[in-house]
Amino acid sequence: MLTCLDHVVVAVSDLEIATETYRMLLGRPPSWRGTHPTLGTANALFRLSNTYLELLAPGGSGRLADALRSRLALEGEGILGLAFGTSDASACAAELRARGLPAAEPAEGMGRDSSTGAERAWRSVLLPTSATRGIVLCAVEHRSPPEALPLSVPDSPAGETISGLDHVVIASADLDAAAALYRDGLGLRLALDRRFERRGLRLLFFRVGGVTVELAGQFAGAPDKAEPDRATGLAWRTEDVAAARARLAAAGFEVSEVRQGQKPGTRVCTVRRETHGVSTLLIGPDPQTAPGPSAR
Q1: CB count, 10 Å around CB of 25?
Q2: pLDDT at 166 over 50
Q3: What is the pLDDT of residues 205-227, one digit of tens each?
Q4: Is the backbone peptide bond immediately before 274 cis, with ω within 30 degrees of 0?
Q5: Helix, strand, coil percent content, the chain, rounded in steps of 5
Q6: For 127, phi and psi rounded to 5 degrees?
Q7: Nearest by Cα to 246 from 88, 11, 1, 27
Q8: Do residues 100 and 199 share a domain?
Q9: Are residues 166 and 223 in the same domain?
């Protein structure tokens, strides 16, 4: 039903500033710059090897722009939602409803690149946030060929840039309810369930199209069923964590030292700011160990 994590949407106040931030962070320019006149919003898209990042900002008047301004005023910048890929929006909507989620009928969408005039078309299936524990979730069927949204070409040496997304982190106060949503409702594969007794932390790892959706929460005490989930962070893949860290430090980012990752054979580095409300981790292979997949 859901074949990949198609893209991650980050709500930002100033699109120009955020686009420049992520151009430096990812080591590549945006693939697309667009506007949505009827919605009152504008966006910048960075297509990577396994997903793309959408920066979304209010730019005029419209239903979406008004909702986005309210969200920014209440919660600030940060991850707004996740869009999963599907090959058939109508079949996906029917399957989601069969799984107990009140999916809307597919809606037609069209985007135009403001610099090249190129157009893309898609169909999307939106789920109400009342059914998704507060996070905007949807499914997208692209009606245009992949080359309509080209890969973003790095403007730094390949080893220093971000190649793709490793995982997205979702904090939940009720992990059992969240797990039911992603496993039973969305049909994602639960690959791992880990508990860290000393910290009282439980992590659930769901895999889709080579990307991990990580649910994180405490397992001690009664869950807060009224507290909504929050998508808090992104972990980006890079071939050389040390080289990527050096590039970001030179560009003015505040970054941690490189350290061993939780998964054997990986090294990680935390980007502390400025990432527009998104907790950010770089992850890559440890050159001192045998090569392996860059996954946490």
Answers
A1: 25
A2: yes
A3: 999 999 999 999 988 776 777 79
A4: yes
A5: 20, 40, 40
A6: -105, 135
A7: 27
A8: no
A9: yes
Share of the chain above pLDDT 90, in %: 79
* Range of the structural domain that residue 220 is part of: 158-285
Side-chain half-sphere exposure of 179, counting CA atoms within 13 A? 14
Residues 273 and 170 in one domain: yes
Q: Quick check: 290 pLDDT over 80?
A: no
Backbone φ, ψ for residue 225 (5° rounding)? -70, -15
Instruction: Assess if residue 295 is contained within a domain.
Output: no
Among the three residues 126, 148, 170, which one is the final residue of a domain in this structure?
148
Taking phi over 0 as left and psi of -120 to 50 as alpha, with beta for the rest, 100 belongs to: left
Report if residue 294 sits inside a domain.
no
Distance CA 152, CA 25 (A): 13
- CB atoms under 10 Å from CB of 230, counted, come to 17
Whole-number Cα distances in Å, 160 to 86, 168, 248, 268: 32, 21, 9, 13
| pTM recorded for the entire structure | 0.93
> Which residue type occupies 292?
G
Structure-token match 């069209």, residue found: 110
Find all residues with CB under 8 Å of 11, minimum gap 6, and list them.
56, 57, 68, 71, 72, 77, 78, 79, 80
Contact assessment for residue 121 and residue 141, using Cβ atoms and an 8 Å cutoff: no
pLDDT of 291 above 70: no
Residue reference for tokens 């793709």: 164
Residues 14 and 140 both lie in one domain? yes
Distance CA 225, CA 204 (A): 18
